[in-house]
Amino acid sequence: xxxxxxxxxxxxxxxxxxxxxxxxxxxxxxxxxxxxxxxxxxxxxxxxxxxxxxxxxxxxxxxxxxxxxxxxxxxxxxxxxxxxxxxxxxxxxxxxxxxxxxxxxxxxxxxxxxx
Length: 115
Description:
Helix content is 0%, strand content 44%.
């Protein structure tokens, strides 16, 4: 699940949009990852990848893991969550055990245009 800065997937979300974010988790070869044994999920979003301040934090309890065995998890984003503008870094952290934690970054662009 490791991603390089220049290859990180990008997601476009309208500013103040209420959405359910659906994440399909695959490895570098495109093989679906079974997340059913994950003990924790966390999605954090921040303006700079190196920042210690998070603009959005979604905790495990907010995720829908109904389809985790097929690599699909979802989480809600509220209008307050998406009231951002510009490009941000999102980090999805998946914990299977204390010694087995997977992380993957992707970019989110929050668009403030009224189109």
